[in-house]
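Data availability (excerpt). The following record was deposited with the supplementary files.
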Amino acid sequence: MLLVTLHTTEGDIRVRLYDETSLHRDNFVKLCREGYYDQTLFHRVIKDFMIQGGDPDSRTATPTQMLGTGGPDYTIEAEIKPELFHRRGTLAAARQGDEVNPERRSSGSQFYITWGQVYNEGQLRQMERQLTMMAEQQRFQQLAAERKADIMQMRRNRDRDGLMALQEQLAAMAKADARNAGTLSDAQREAYTTVGGVPHLDGQYTVFGEVTEGLEVVERIQNSETRPGDRPTTDIRILTTEVEEA
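Predicted structure:
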């Protein structure tokens, strides 16, 4: 088992890295051992959501400098697994959005630690409906992209009936494919109604570890006062990182 301690200006955060996400585990350990994260900021902090770090540009950033695009010249293949979800205190990889990153490859260095909130059953049912609708829309867009040539030809031919029929066909396919996409597992329901977390991120980002010590530090950081752009008004730094095997 690999453990990493982030020594920060707010205190220590210790995380356990998952063996099930070995690409992310090994990359994170490599960067930590190289001192890649030393003196970098938690540059994006949103109360009741998460804290994000890992941008090397933040190391020497001016107070008004926009951050969030820095990193190494590579991304990491997604390792999104249903059993690894965004309960409070999980470590996950940031990434670019689906519109430019449909494979959901992770940033080479940027990460976030979740906080979220505790949900009741009614809120979770509403969340499931929203997640299903989102999955249905995403699937429809994928199917439409696959049939782009046919759609363009119908438009050139002004074939409105054909377009309508194809749209209905793709909508039905998307609905069928996404029917159970938003359903939360028993483990998710238990976590989100007790310790809390961020369920709407499940299935979208790679979760590759969890906080084992220092969750109170995460809580303190996510409560920080921030300026526009979600950067803390007072810099919060990762001073050094320490890797150990247990």
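Summary of structural features: Residues 155 and 163 are 8 Å apart (CA to CA).
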